[in-house]
Amino acid sequence: MNRPRYLTYALSTLLKVVLVSLLSFEGFTQRVDLALHQLPAALDTTTGELTYIQVIDVPNTPASVLFDRARSWCMDTFRSSKSVIDYEDKASGVIAAKPLVYTKSRNGSTAQRVVIDIRCKDGKYRCEVHPYEFTTTTLATPVITPFRDFNLRIIEQIRQKGRVAGWQFAHLQAMDAQFKAFLTSIEAAMKQPGKSEF
Fold this sequence. Notes:
Elements: H1 5-29, E1 31-33, E2 52-57, H2 63-77, H3 81-84, E3 85-89, E4 94-97, E5 100-105, E6 108-121, E7 124-136, E8 143-146, H4 147-161, E9 163-165, H5 166-191
Antiparallel strand pairs: 1-9, 2-7, 3-4, 4-6, 5-6, 6-7, 7-8
């Protein structure tokens, strides 16, 4: 049978697209055996809340200087710090930011809305990072999900079946690494004298 060239090309292209889709779907639906203790330590398996908290001593540094360093960190870390900083009060040493943070994992990317709360006192600060919702950006129609609900589904799957979808665990691991990196980044910024301090 003699097929026109364009038809042969179209069929081979269609076959490639179907094959790639199937391989991507297999990676997307792959399951991972998991126990609750293998989840990030910052995840509360009762409430589904994911909260990272650190209290760091910065000896001989006044609260006002720590506040300025925290504010500088927000301005340097996020593109639009004015829209990200939700609340700031230098007198009480409090900065609350709500940035949109993008996380990439092996099966796509998501955008998380996060609360970063920094409280400064003389010689120390407390930082809390808490994601509260995420948007799947790899789908044609983005899906917004409360992060707590996402975590509770993972916890329930582990309790019932001892396994979760590979993409879910990969995403949770990527977020865990990213938020730990935030804490490390802010610690370095809080311990480093700023340009205006010289």
